[in-house]
Amino acid sequence: MASITLDQVSKTYPNGQTAARDLTIEIGDGELLVLVGPSGSGKSTVLRLVAGLELPTAGRILIDGRDVTAVPPQRRDLAMVFQSYALYPHKSVRENLAFGLRVRRVDAAEIDARVRLAAATLGIEALLDRKPAQLSGGQRQRVALGRAIVREPKAFLLDEPLSNLDPLLRVATRTELGLLHRRLAATMVYVTHDQEEAMTLGTRVAVMRNGAIEQIGPALALFRRPANTFVAGFVGSPAMNLWPGACRRLDGRARVASAVCSIDLDEAGQSVPDGAELVAGVRPHDIDLTSDGDVTGRVEIVEPLGPVTLVHLRVAGLPGEFVRVIVPSDARIGVDDQARFRIRRDRLHLFDGRTGRRLN
Amino acid sequence: MKNARTPPGSGASWLREEARLGWALALPALATIALVAVFPILWTFWESLHLHDLRMPWLGRPFVGAANYAEAFGDPRFRSALGHTGVFMTAAVTLELGAGLLVALALDRVSRGRGMVRTAVLLPWAIPTVVAALIWRFMFESPAGLASAALVRLGAAPPTWFADALAAWIPLVLADVWKTTPFVALLLLAGLQNIDKALYEAADVDGAGRWRQFTAITLPLLRPALLVAFLFRALDAFRVFDVVYVMTGGGPGTATEPVALYTFSTLLQNLRFGFGSALSVIVFVVAFFFALASIRVLGRGAFLDGPA
Amino acid sequence: MTLGATARTTARRWARPVATGLLVAAILFPLYWAALSSLTPENRLFAAPALVPRELVLDHYRALFRERDFWTPVRNSLVVAGATTVLSVVLGTVCAYALARLRFRGKAVMLAFVLAVSMFPQISIVSPLYLLLRELRLLNTYPGLVLPYLTFAMPLTIWLLVGFFRQLPAELEEAGLMDGAGRLQTLWAIVLPLSWPGIATTAILTFLYSWNEFLFALSFTLGPERHTVPVAITLFRGQYQVPWGQILAAAVVATAPVAAIVLAAQRRIVAGLTSGAVKG
């Protein structure tokens, strides 16, 4: 296994579209880095740059400290699992697994042994003589994984490997992937648009937008301290409440004032100049419905999610948006109720209104 | 990292490798084409500037400049050959597009036995032009051929087809129409099947009648296919040779002789290579304009897709 | 529903198949007529044409192969069309793959060049090819026909196959690269096995065009020993009159392989003919 480094990598297509802007990422040996972002954010491009299927317009790509920018994909010794799986339709499962080894002139006995082992690892021994067309979606996905692990490559590149599976299978396979990563102690780069997948799988998660990395770090760090409003809104479900507001001084103390709340800023926030635009962010489960709450809203939608219930409140002064609140599933609440709520002040996220950057 | 920064440009080395492989794979075929098609066309042009008569080798091959072209444009037989070609193109292409559209509309509605129908339609296209021409010549053979007999039974007086400077065009054009309408029909059928059927359903809901649907939806959306079919057929009709050679030999006299046939007999019967080459170049230039138009139509998208 | 309306719907239900049947019959009639006449005794050929045969004889076919040695042109055509097809498909496949998939400068220009050559009027290059082949002593030989045939066969195969390769999912090739196979190995082990339908279609069309070619064959063969089928039929001469019976028999013989190919591969042929022309 190997470490992968992107060193100031940029990719601009001939049509002027920029898919990667000056990216520097270090992926440690045995790490599973998840690249997550909306479609068009450049996450797949980063994967293809590492694979060698695309060539950067600037910067270097290193594997184990060796510059491979000029090395073609077939000599990088990386394995890739494609979103469409890209199984060779004319080859049996066995031949699909064996192809990469045959190309490397591994001898027949060893190919056989390794194919068996990989198939056993993934529970696809019974499918070895079938053609891809005779497999279900989940089985194809396993074969695609098998084709990658049988090679024992330096690293695995996975491009939305679960997105073609139905939801139940997706969650189960996600768990298995996590196990597989631990068992193989493999370096993996994993691309997805699903933040939940990213949070559950990644050793570290990189959130991308417009070809740039918005934030990179352990999943929980991203969740607890999003670096900007984009990450705050993207990571976590249901999404964080974000309210525009301004900084007001009262008795010499800086406060954030918005339609929903007026809260004293902590020490870090004291340097914010008066009148500056701010965005206050609060996660739905950091708001409590209580009878002595300081803000009132009208309940518009009640969504029972099972373990908890998501309530959408309409608050005066915030016309376009709901305030999302998580309440226990046994809470007695109905549409059109007037509800009072209070924000847990210590869980307040504060962002600069212009740049979107985190302030506290 | 210990490694020195990559010198600019070297990152492209495997792209260069790929480019080299690309050229290596493409070159044999492209070189062959250059050798058997491009080099000869240049030679034709060079040859057309010379007096070169294989029957009179003692004259050598003196350079005569544009003399052959001057002769060509002053040559009444060449000018009438151009006229014949124009007549043939107009008649054949018009009929083929019209008939092709009708056949395509009919085939578009066929649900059962589509394979059989398609085979039937393909057969005339697939057989050698020479064979098609012979079969039609046989049917129009005067005076006892099938066409004459049918006309007599209908009470009309049949013309002496191939001995009549005007009537001779009828079997020529008919044979060409029979042979190539299927191709036009298949092109247009493919165009028809690209049209979203939901459009017709929407038009039904809007209360548009069949004819209205045809003029408002089918024709406009079929325009690209019609244009392609027109260009293909016009180019082909301009080059017409086989049908005429077999059916009339350009006769009676030279009444049905198109440019390709005149050029051929100048070259290979009279062995006047210099003059014949000038005629070839003129044919080439005219065809080139059709080809340019076709390439522009076909090329849209075909050449401009991104890096594969 | 009234009786009249029922009749009308019945009529409408039958109108379409009947119209289609008539159309097919009209299209096929000349072929039927030729086949029928090729089996009619010479003295009856022009006497009172009848749509249903009264007497069928194989005389013309016997004469065709015994007296005229029609096998020679058939063999010539097979050799020339076959060699042209093999050569242009082999060279054209690798060239088309490069033009469709590899990244290098000048691809678009080359493709335009190929398309332009496919529209060359054959007559425009007859004179230099004649002089060239005469110089190389290739007039009246098989190579002397195959080389000129490449002028149309090669652009045709390249154009068709570029269209076909572009339809293959690129991810399969990328998977091959990631598996460690080079471009050539990917072409051989992954692309070609998946491309045989496209290659077969291309080969069929190339063969048909070569089998049917007339102008070059007429220009560059000098004697019956090298005439191809279309040239041989055209130059049939009788002692006193046109030997129509034998000509039509020969026409049937020339059509038979074509008809067999069309029957077997009509779907592919239609796809090949219309690809590139409509999607462009």
Q: How would you characterize the overall build of this protein?
A:
The complex is a heterotrimer of chains A (360), B (308) and C (280). Chain A is an alpha+beta fold and 360 residues long. Chain A is built from eight helices and 20 strands. In chain A, 24% of the residues lie in helices and 33% in strands. A six-stranded mixed sheet of chain A has the order 6-7-8-3-9-10, sandwiched between helices. Chain A has a five-stranded antiparallel sheet with strand order 13-12-11-14-20. In chain A, β1 (4-12) and β2 (18-27) form a beta hairpin. Chain A is elongated and about 80 Å long. By secondary structure, chain B is an all-alpha fold. Chain B contains twelve helices and no strands. The longest helix of chain B is centred in the N-terminal third of the chain and has 35 residues, at 13-47. Chain B is flat. Chain B starts with 12 loop residues before the first helix and ends in a 6-residue tail after the last helix. With 280 residues, chain C is mainly alpha-helical. Chain C has two domains: 3-61, no CATH class; 69-235, Orthogonal Bundle (MetI-like fold). Chain C has helices at residues 3-38, 59-66, 71-101, 107-118, 126-135, 143-167, 170-178, 183-212, 215-220, 229-234, 244-274. The longest helix of chain C is centred in the first third of the chain and has 36 residues, at 3-38. At the B-C interface, α1, α3, α4, α5 and α7 of B face α1, α3, α4, α5 and α6 of C.
- Could you name the CATH class of the largest domain in chain C? Mainly Alpha
Output mean pLDDT of chain C.
Answer: 86
Briefly, what CATH class of the largest domain in chain A? Alpha Beta
Taking the alpha carbons of the first and last residues of chain A, their distance comes to: 39 Å
H and E order of chain C: HHHHHHHHHHH
CATH architecture of the largest domain in chain C: Orthogonal Bundle
How many helices of chain C does DSSP assign? 11
Largest sheet of chain C: none
Beta-strand percentage range of chain A: 25-35%
Task: Provide the CATH superfamily of the largest domain in chain C.
Answer: MetI-like
Which percent range fits the helix content of chain A? 10-25%
What multimeric state do the chains show? heterotrimer
- The number of distinct structural domains of chain A comes to 2
Strand content of chain C: under 5%
Radius of gyration of chain C: 24 Å
Low-confidence stretches of chain A: none
Query: Which shape of chain A, going by the Cα principal axes?
Result: elongated
